[in-house]
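PROTEIN DESIGN WORKSHEET
SECTION A - STRUCTURE
LENGTH: 98
TOKENS:
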């Protein structure tokens, strides 16, 4: 399908639809997107949170270079952000959010 003005999505619209479609938290999804300079990962996780991580392109998920946003499934307006030196692989376990 060709992208036209009537069917193109912004990244925000796509993310909102994915979060709404999996609001029960029973499905984990990883989406890799980004530009030449930024790598973005999205995890809709069964732990009750959605995670959005950004790091420089080429950054390993085990590297301490991620800025991660954690969004509550119960209250999506309640989101917290990690320090920019977080590890994506630890997003649901040892990363501290504030």
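SECTION B - SEQUENCE
RESIDUE ASSIGNMENT:
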């Amino acid at each position: 399908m060709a992208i036209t003005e009537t069917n193109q999505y912004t990244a925000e619209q796509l993310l909102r639809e994915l979060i709404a479609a999996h609001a029960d938290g029973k499905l984990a999804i990883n989406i890799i997107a980004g530009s030449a300079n930024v790598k973005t990962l999205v995890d809709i996780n069964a732990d009750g949170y959605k995670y959005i991580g950004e790091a420089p392109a080429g950054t390993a998920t085990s590297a301490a270079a991620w800025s991660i946003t954690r969004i509550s499934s119960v209250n999506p307006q309640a989101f917290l952000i990690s320090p920019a030196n977080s590890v994506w692989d630890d997003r649901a376990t040892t990363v501290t959010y504030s």
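SECTION C - NOTES
Residues 7 and 45 are 27 Å apart (CA to CA).
Helices lie at 11-21.
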